[in-house]
From TrEMBL:
GO terms for biological process: G protein-coupled receptor signaling pathway. It comes from Haemonchus placei (Barber's pole worm). Residues 1-33 form the G protein gamma domain. InterPro entries: G-protein_gamma-like_dom, GGL_sf. It comes from the Eukaryota. SUPFAM superfamilies: Transducin (heterotrimeric G protein), gamma chain (SSF48670). This is G protein gamma domain-containing protein.
Length: 33
């Protein structure tokens, strides 16, 4: 449990990711000209 408390700031499962770092984010939609 101590390990979890010490590393929760860098754990993406606990803290989540930003959109810029998320490799699974949805791609931008295409625009029609």
């Amino acid at each position: 449990m101590d390990y979890c408390e010490k590393h929760k700031a860098t754990d993406t499962l606990v803290s989540g990711t930003t959109d810029a770092q998320n490799p699974f984010r949805e791609k931008k939609g295409c625009t029609l000209i």
